[in-house]
Amino acid sequence: MGQSLIAQLLNICRKHGNVSILTRCELQELLSSGAEGRVIGAKVRCERSHESVDIHASLGVILATGGFSQNQVMRDTYLRIVPAEAAGAKMVTMADWSLAARGDVGVALQVGERLGADSAQLDQVWGIPTRIDFAEGRIMEGKVTEAMFAISKPFSFVVDGDGRRFFSESQPYGPAVRAMYERAKENTKATVFWLIFDSTYMQEYPPRGLENSCSIDVAVNLGRLFRSDTIDDLAKQILEPDHHLQSTVVEWNEMCENGHDKYFHRGEDRYQQFIGDPDVTPNPCMGPVKESPFYAMKIFPGDAGTRGGLLTDEFARVLGKSGIAIPGLYAGGNASVALLESQGAGTTLAPAMTEGFIAVSNMLSVAIGAGAR
């Protein structure tokens, strides 16, 4: 994500020739001094040398290390979908569901809090539904990929662990994941989600890695994909005995005849119509699930990162618990609280770039005695 932007910024740094870029280095702690606790640098550990190095920064430090999507302990603390002690709870929230970079482990929040930094929105994510990636080399490891397009196509629908639908599968990915979180909070038995689809779907929109019968057989044998000639037998493989999948299929197919989802209005706005299949009528997002064999694959309430982080002011300065800025400490991107509510593409990249510009501008203003401290 954002590779083109990163490439352009890297090119600018190289053109100027006075920017040092250290890779494979882990931030361990922030350095501070004086009674006011001004941040004057950072201690980092470099993988190549296996040594810790103190890097001093006369104007300040900007934390832009992402959120904590890949830190399971922090996910359990802040993103738990159902209480740990909930009877019958089958799902909490897993780092394995996330599309975020492996280095997204919450280091900014950890080092910031050691200096008394405040934080907010730690229970929120940039939600994107995910699924097992069936591509060769990834399916064996259980790696995930986005599922936003897979769940939006006709001839399919998503159910919970009871076999019931609970949201419009073609809605934007952020609200879709929020719907999954809410469903899990409502019913601890309903905390496993499945995409149910038929052979028409498999023929028209095969998930990557399932383009032929051989790859489908491999996925089934590995337990990554479930298949059966009947809905009832498919349900026995994935759901509890008291499921409602059969009645859900019957009602879904009836609604597909006139193209109206009377419960969740799937395919009734322009976004959903765009993400569906224009060749399917009368509703591009609805198609009956009636052609065997039938399939089921797990859908996870995944994410592209967390939305919460260090609390900052209008100058991108990190605020302490007292509401006063910590001198010399700045944050941006997913290391700080999200600026935008929208989950459209780019709503993390643009704010991160802007916050970086604001932070450096404030550093320079402070250095010449003209700005907020």
TrEMBL record:
Pfam families: FAD_binding_2. Residues 2-336 form the FAD-dependent oxidoreductase 2 FAD-binding domain. The keyword Oxidoreductase applies. One of its GO terms (biological process) is steroid metabolic process. Coiled coil: none annotated. This is FAD-dependent oxidoreductase 2 FAD-binding domain-containing protein. Keywords: FAD, Flavoprotein, Oxidoreductase. The lineage of its organism: Eukaryota, Fungi, Dikarya, Ascomycota, Pezizomycotina. One of its GO terms (molecular function) is oxidoreductase activity. Its cofactor is FAD. Transmembrane segments: none annotated.
